[in-house]
Specification:
single chain, alpha/beta, Spore Coat Polysaccharide Biosynthesis Protein SpsA, Chain A, 2 domains, nine-stranded mixed β-sheet, 9 strands
């Protein structure tokens, strides 16, 4: 199968135990292991994180490439720099607090080899809180490129932590561009607008760490304003029309400024499967 890189980013507020678990899932437990892991250190880290990184450097050697940034730049910039440091044409994204299924890379590599017209392939996710066996929700998405293009006008068509993509196809539309909280969604829309095709595998390949903290970050006036700016950008580049824009802004703005408890119910009951 094709050689590939894994792209990750870590910053000081992350839990060292979660990072270590993520590394175990992509190194020790995978049926096909990556030839390179690019880890962007987004600013100064805490000592626990440095200890975990050093542990995996001693295990992986040159396979693990750390890219330290002098200060915290945010996920969009970190991933942009990280992708530029990936040596291979196929790149898998992985968050540093999630858990990949043992056959994740094998399934995605096989799919890309069999479907060279696809630029990005993702998958479904399970979501857990606390213990990784405590799965409380699932995010299931359309699979076929045609359905995903339509779906993307309303919601993010890919689970970012699950994607594997063709590096040059991402670079051809400008790489990751900072857009706080929406770097991935903005990238997928630019790729679709450029005629690239995306797909999802109908299987759960990542167990994502979620819960109250994650939901808290997805609300508030600031988040709503950023989402409005994103929709305005989609309108500007011609991906959505004015009616789509008005509908999206109304639904999303209303959801973001609702109380946290109401937003949690909306998220778990309407946007996820239990």
């Amino acid at each position: 199968m094709m050689n590939f890189s894994v792209l990750m980013s870590v910053y000081t507020k992350e839990n060292p135990e979660y990072v270590d678990r993520a590394f175990r899932s992509i190194c020790d437990e995978q049926s096909i292991k990556p030839q390179q892991i690019v880890l962007v250190e987004d600013g100064r880290l805490n000592e626990g994180l440095y200890s975990v990184i050093q542990k995996w450097k001693s295990i992986l050697g040159d396979t693990l490439k750390s890219v330290p940034l002098a200060e915290n730049m945010g996920l969009g910039t970190a991933l942009k720099i990280g992708l530029e440091n990936c040596d291979y044409e196929i790149v898998a994204r992985m968050d540093t607090d999630d858990i990949a299924s043992p056959d994740r890379f094998e399934k995605q590599l096989y799919f890309l080899e069999e479907n060279p017209h696809i630029s990005v392939v993702g998958s479904f996710i399970t979501e857990f809180e606390g213990d990784e066996q405590n799965i409380y929700a699932k995010r299931v998405l359309p699979q076929e490129p045609e359905r995903l293009s339509a779906f993307a006008k309303r919601r993010n068509p890919l689970n970012h932590m699950t994607v594997m993509f063709v590096k040059n196809d991402v670079l051809s539309v400008g790489n990751y561009i900072p857009f706080l909280g929406f770097e991935d969604y903005y990238l997928w829309i630019r790729m679709l607008k450029a005629g690239k095709q995306i797909a999802n595998l109908p299987m759960f390949l990542v167990n994502a760490r979620a819960g109250a903290a994650m939901l808290g970050r997805r609300g508030g006036l600031g988040y709503a304003i950023t989402e409005y700016k994103l929709q305005r950008e989609f309108l500007r580049i011609g991906f959505i029309g004015i009616l789509d824009f008005m509908f999206n802004v109304f639904v999303r703005f209303s959801t973001r400024i609702t109380p946290h408890t109401v937003r949690t119910i909306f998220y778990k009951k309407l946007l996820r499967k239990s």
